[in-house]
Amino acid sequence: MSAVNETLIRDVVAEVLGKLGGTATATTKTSPAPSPAPTPKSDSCGCGTKKATSAPALRGKFGVFATAEEACEAAQESFLQLKQKGIAARRKIEEIVKTLAEKNAEAWGKIEFDETKIGRLDHKIAKLQIIKLVPGVDWLRPDARSGDHGITLEEFTPFGVVGAITPSTHSIPTLSGNIVNICAAGNSVVFNAHPSAAKCAAIAVRAYNEAIYRETGIENIACIIEKPSLDSFNALCKNEFTRLLLVTGGPMVVKAAMQTGKRAICAGPGNPPVFVDDTCCPTRAAKAIISGAAFDNNLLCIGEKQVFVLENTADKLMQKLSENGAVKLNSSQVEKLTKAAFTITPGQGGGCAHAHTNKDFIGKDPSVLAQAAGVNIPSGTQLLFGETDAMHPFVQEEQMMPMIPIVRVKSVEEGIERSLQSEHNYKHTAIIHSHDITNITEMARVLDTTLFVKNGASATGLGLGGEGYLSFSIATPTGEGITNPRTFTRVRRCVMVDNLKIY
Ligand code: NAD
Q: With a threshold of 0.85, does the pTM exceed it?
């Protein structure tokens, strides 16, 4: 069928459906009602191989499904369609996701903020405006060898359906960046979002699919389970079409994914320490700590969570923090806040007491924390800080609050050792403020983290003010690092013997 005829037919069908009131609901101002998806054509070439089949139950959903089984089936069908439509369709998908994320940043940022009630609205919006920095199709370049025996290409090729788990801390940004990476590599994806951030995720998925369908004819390239649960997580992991898992979340989901038997790329938890020595610029260090730890009220896994500072620099650093918009809590205020923000469970059978973070304080504004600490702070305060000991819950827990504990240390060795202990071997992110190359090198070697930032805010490690590229999924325990399209590929070798060597 010619392109003109196809367009004409789509328009007519859309008009008829419009008159019947039967189109899928557009969820954003920028997403006009789409025309219905076509029933897949019979692609049989007579060889007997099973191709995409007609599945009316999967039509008109634009990626949003009640069950993992339906979502995986639709995603598998879309994967096969994408394979046929080639690199041009992958490029279109990348362009659509990046454009829509930016265009809808304010609306979607607000929807996510209203649903999750954590973080900061301005930063929820900012996280969607930067999806354009996520690498896409151009990232994939084949590896070539040429010699007396001909040429060999190693190509980065798709898996098929990727099952992806997204966190509550940045639902639409993670999902959007994941679609760019995963589809740039030629895969389709099914999401099981965090239940407390699933409605906003479904809104974005529907809008993306509507636009992708209009432009490419592929309807369900990014699918989502509308009401996610542990059962739907298990069903997604078990599904025969799910070839690979991408998990972005805390320790429990990483463990669960690794036990499924499927290959899992795990973007796990962090508790990033900052070490400040006496060779640094205290003003620069203070500004960087505020900018990193205050971002989205410290919800980011890479965000600065605790600071170890050499004794002779501690007062100077804290003065600079105060001068640049952070507010210091005294020791009784820190303890008051600690009682509200953590529940301490006594040790069982001689074991250590354990602190559990109170969810009511995660990602809340400094003013909410200050109220619990019994202190009034100026409006617009970015961050709270206070002195603690090294084993304090604010140091040891991944607390995700705009409150930074400051711990004085006597030596560089102690600072590095305490940083290592507080990072809990997550191998995620660590930061140093120092102009001493030996200290910097030693901390990098000892901490052995995926991201190591020198003299900047944590976000510089994701290409935001530092060199590099962006992803909201940093694969730490499984070692893939900052995910990119290549992370979601199979390497396949193609060998031409004795020919096509042209020199
Ligand atoms: P979370 O672990 O509570 O939830 C993450 C996802 O896992 C959600 O979709 C949730 O429904 C699911 N989940 C949780 N426990 C599960 C289980 N036992 N079985 C199956 N699914 C389960 O985390 P959160 O509060 O949404 O997000 C914050 C956490 O995620 C922090 O630990 C943070 O460091 C981490 N995180 C890591 C990265 C990274 O790139 N490494 C990025 C963002 C967040």
A: yes
